[in-house]
Amino acid sequence: MLFPKAELSSQEWLIAIDASSFGPEEWEEAASHLLEKLNSGKLQATFPEIREYLSCCAQAAIGSYPLPPFTELVTEFYDQYGLDSAKPLDD
Known about the structure:
- The protein is about 60% helix and about 5% strand.
- It has helices at about 5-10, 10-20, 25-40, 45-60, 70-80; strands at about 45, 85-90.
- It has a two-stranded antiparallel ribbon.
- The protein is globular, with a radius of gyration of 13 Å.
């Protein structure tokens, strides 16, 4: 499932990207990857929950050198901590 263009161009999304060290393509790739991981675990999360999660992951990378690939960072966080706000998929 892809995200609606309106979500990927929302002011909140763009502000979160601007506050990070990662570019828009990296954010979109990381969001899609996180969504795939949620789906494989039969879980779902809203777009704002995913945006917040990515923002937290990006903030954790501040001061890291070299900067890790964003998708790898998000995967590492998800595998270690999960996503508390995720809910079971609706059937």
